[in-house]
Amino acid sequence: MSNDNNSLEPHGERLPASATEPIADPGLPEHHWRPTDVDPRAERRAERQIAGMFIAAMAFAVLFVVAYFSLSVGDNWDTFLGMGASTMALGVTLGLSLLLIGIGIIHLARKLMADAEMVEMRHPAASPAEDREATVAALNAGLDEAGIGRRPLVRNTMLGAVGVLGLPAVVLLRDLAPGDELDIDKLAHTIWEPGMRLVRDVVGTPILASEIEMGDLINAAPEAMFPTEENGYEELHGAQEQVDKAKGAIIIVRMDPDDIIPAKGREKWTVDGIICYSKICTHVGCPISLYERTTHHVLCPCHQSTFDLADHAKVVFGPAARPLPQLPLAVDDEGYLVAQSDFTEPIGASYWEREKQ
Ligand code: FES
Fold first, then answer.
1. Which tops the pLDDT comparison, 27 or 215?
2. E strand or H helix at 85
3. What pLDDT digit, counting tens, does each position of 158-187 carry?
4. Ligand 1 center to residue 227 CA distance, Å?
5. How far is the CA of 267 from the centre of ligand 1 (A)?
6. Distance between CA 48 and CA 340 in Å, rounded?
7. How far does the centroid of ligand 1 lie from the alpha carbon of residue 3, in Å?
8. Regarding the domain delimited by 186-356, which CATH topology (the fold level of the hierarchy) does it fall under?
9. Residues 79, 85: contact at Cβ < 8 Å?
10. Which atom of ligand 1 is nearest to the CA of 305?
11. Which of 8, 110, 250, 331 is deepest in the core (most CB within 10 A)?
12. Taking Cα atoms as reference points, which of 248, 320, 255, 326 lies closest to residue 294?
């Protein structure tokens, strides 16, 4: 055994038992060379397989771009397992592209990179200059051993696959820009309509105005999300159900009516201090309900935007750029809370075209 801490013991050496080390080092099992180490044909075959994966990764990245432009988003929701063809195609092509690059790199490491097992003895944690130089030299040696320089086919296809993968990112940036073809109407409206009851989230029971205590915050939903024979709402399915559920989510709070500072034109949107807002943060759309009853502030857990529910949910802190949309409330003949109308502005994260409403 070498006493030099930095020395590397060749694979398979057994260290004898001694007075200070009573248990003999069992060493490493016998080394078996891989087929690609001893058979040039297996090596070339592995090289072609890996290059094939990188080429397929490029093809899937290009197909992502094709799918992005050829399949319209949103109008084909029920095409496949209740999901849109566009969503499916974008996810599958990008996923396969990333997967193939990952598998290709793993195969490169397992089949073609140098297969030498070494034992490095423990050494002090400090890194003197000569160690750092040795590390750089080892990295360079590793690159040499990986054979990337000697295998232009693998190198070029791998770089090509990673490079072409940048295309989807560039294409997706386009969605951040204003666009005339966006169906704003669809984004601006929710399932809420005049007379629809507010029901408790999850259980779907209607809410009596008289049962809400001062300081309460209730997570609620539109009654249409809980269709029964009695209420007559139609059953919703697939992506449409998810969209309506997400866009219709609300929070209801009760506070002293004298604390409420209504926005102009919203003086009759509350019922005895009961006020209702969209549950979806106007920053990037997280659901919010962290409520502080003494200040009437509600906090979004994602990036700490804070809204003052007494003052038409105006933003008092954080990155959100506009108040939470308010749902106008009334009570029906039986005393249950109902909506006076849909929201009068788009809910959720802001977008360029919102001002066109
Ligand atoms: S999503 Fe609410 S603060 Fe960012």
1. 215
2. helix 85-107
3. 999 999 988 888 888 877 766 666 677 777
4. 31
5. 28
6. 66
7. 59
8. Rieske Iron-sulfur Protein (2.102.10)
9. yes
10. 3
11. 250
12. 255
**CA 193 – ligand 1 centroid, Å:** 27
Q: Which of 278, 282, 297, 300 to mutate to test the pocket of ligand 1 (most atoms within 8 A of CB)?
A: 300
Parse the chain into domains and list their residue ranges. Answer: 8-177, 186-356
Q: How far apart are CA 158 and CA 107, in angstroms?
A: 12
Separation of 344 CA from ligand 1 center, angstroms? 21
Both tokens of residue 234?
């139609």
Which residue in 131, 272, 295 sits closest to 211, CA to CA? 272
290 SS3 class: strand
pLDDT band (50, 70, 90) for residue 85: confident
Q: What is the DSSP string of 147-216?
A: TTTT-HHHHHHHHHHHHHTHHHHHHHHGGGS--TTS-HHHHH--S--TTPBEEETTT--B-BGGGPPTT-
pTM above 0.85, yes or no: no
Q: Best of 290, 305, 347 to mutate for ligand 1, by most ligand atoms within 8 A of CB?
A: 305
Ligand 1, pocket-test mutation among 278, 279, 280, 281, most atoms within 8 A of CB: 281
307's tokens? 């809204």
